[in-house]
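[agent] plan:
  1. take the single chain provided in the ticket
  2. run structure prediction with default settings
  3. attach structure tokens to the ticket
  4. add a short note for the reviewer (M.T.)
[agent] executing step 1
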Amino acid sequence: MKRLPTLAFGIVVSFALVGCAKKQVAQAVPPAPHNEAAATPTAPAHTPVASRPAPQEQAVNRPAMSRMPDAATRKRIDELLARIEDAYFDYNRHELRPDALQALQQDSTELRDILKDYPDYKLTVEGYCDERGSAEYNIALGDARAKAAKDYLVQVGIPGNQLNVLSYGKEKQVCDEHDETCWQKNRRIHIVAAAR
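[agent] step 2 finished; step 3 output follows
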């Protein structure tokens, strides 16, 4: 009989130790690693979505902006081109003189502001020479003059991809006398709307 209370006490202690051991094992398991993606709360599947059109739908509903000017804008461009004086060059030179810069500068700002809205509309900068020299030499010189004018127009903000260059060399003279006064009139660049 004396052994019975000791045995009962042993059983109770055993159960207590087993229970404690299980609790310790459960506590000994390390916590799951912190995963930000898993920690981010997700919206329940049944949450209603706002009925806004997708960004693509909004873009489709807006009218597309024309890449070419309308008739009124083309008329204004033609007026500006008519007002821009030809830029003249010294003999056998393609650098822009101060008077040439002034001729190009006068209306190029307004022209720039119009052209930037119409990326498909192009202008042609034509280069010319006087009658002296070979045709090949004058084609190259006229091209260099047109490129110098184009470079200036790009500096004031006219997109370069909207400016073509074309050299006529000593073709299409505006004056056919054989003196310096006439030759000076032929050493020039002229800006026109590109053929459409």
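[agent] step 4 note for reviewer: The CA atoms of residues 73 and 120 lie 14 Å apart.
[agent] ticket updated
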